[in-house]
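Progress report, Aim 2. The chain analyzed during this reporting quarter is listed below.
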Amino acid sequence: MTAFINNTKTVLLLGLLTGLFVAVGGALGQQFILPFLLLGVGMNVFAWFFSHRIAIAAMRGREVDEHTGGDLYRIVRDLSARAGLPMPRVYVCPHEAPNAFATGRSPRHAAVAVTQGLLRSLDRDEIEGVIAHELAHIKNRDTLTSCVAATISGVLASVAQWGFLLGGHHRSNTNPLVAMLTVVLAAVGAAVIRAAISRSREFVADADGAAIAGSPHGLISALQKLDAFSRRVPLVQPNPAQNSLFIVEPLCGNPVSRLFASHPPVEARVNALLRLGGARAAAD
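Predicted structure tokens for the chain:
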């Protein structure tokens, strides 16, 4: 049922973002509607098959194996087996800001990536909590939705600006103010759609990750540390549209970024996990 719901969300996301492409083209002029429609469809196909590679490449991830991955690889392997998942590919990204994400269009095409800063900042129990959270995203097939949203939302802003510049040569058929407002609203709309889909998934992945790890305490401690670090050490990455991929919101100390936050507040997530831990203790 979870897979069906998330696949449905992905289809709706593709449709909404394609509609934004068409809206931008229509505002620039009728001659742009068909090209923007074809571009939107093409981006959907491209994002479906290649968005995970874009995410890894953007973070300069280096793949590790059982010989080079050390404890990280063993943690991913053991928790994947516990979750009943195929072993995902494992990457380490050369960033000081501690963070992690999962990507891939399906559990059989999945990858887990962590930054070097995370490996240096967290202990083993905390790393297990983070990895379990990311595996929960893979198991629930959230990774496809996140990757597609990140890829298309990021491209939409650039394409809209490009189209607006082209539209400037046809001002007799285009109202420049309407075109500009459409570009802005399309970019904002993409961010809102991405955020609305992303936020609810985090609570589910936290709860499912705690179940995979066997306890919520490692994830609770990890979230608190990652939240504190993210306020001091910004994650340098080229595409802010990819923020929804990460376990905690990059640049969460930025007041503007909080307006379109793709994650619920860490405090709310920690409180939910504490309640979960209390309920389990009472049941035992």
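Residues 234 and 251 are 5 Å apart (CA to CA). The chain is about 70% helix and 5% strand. These observations will guide the mutagenesis work planned for the next reporting period.
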